[in-house]
Amino acid sequence: MEILIDAHTLERAEERGTNKDEIEDVIRTGSAITAKYGRIGKAKVYDFKQTRHNKYYEQKRVEVFYTIEEDKIVTVTVYVFYGRWEE
Fold it and tell me: What local confidence, expressed as pLDDT, does residue 86 receive?
């Protein structure tokens, strides 16, 4: 299925520390999470091992929310959380 990444999602991605490739990867291979308003949510944890805003983080969790319109996945927004998760 084709993935259309909305301009709003790309803006939030840049601000929050992710990118188009990770968004597409989360949609394709991430785990389902709860979403509101009839949307679909998926999340995936990535190794980060970098500093962000003067603090070191081992991992980041990228959450993508989207809808399916006709034959296309259309993103709504993306969130990124930094920390450590047990898989």
Answer: 77
- The domain tally of the chain equals 1
Range of the domain at 24: 2-83
Q: Which residues of the chain have pLDDT under 50?
A: none
- Residue 81 sits at φ, ψ, to 5 deg, of -120, 145
What are the DSSP calls for 12-81, one per residue?
HHHHHT--HHHHHHHHHHPEEE--STT-EEEEEEEEEEEEETTEEEEEEEEEEEEEEETTEEEEEEEEEE
* CB distance 73 to 3 below 8 Å: yes
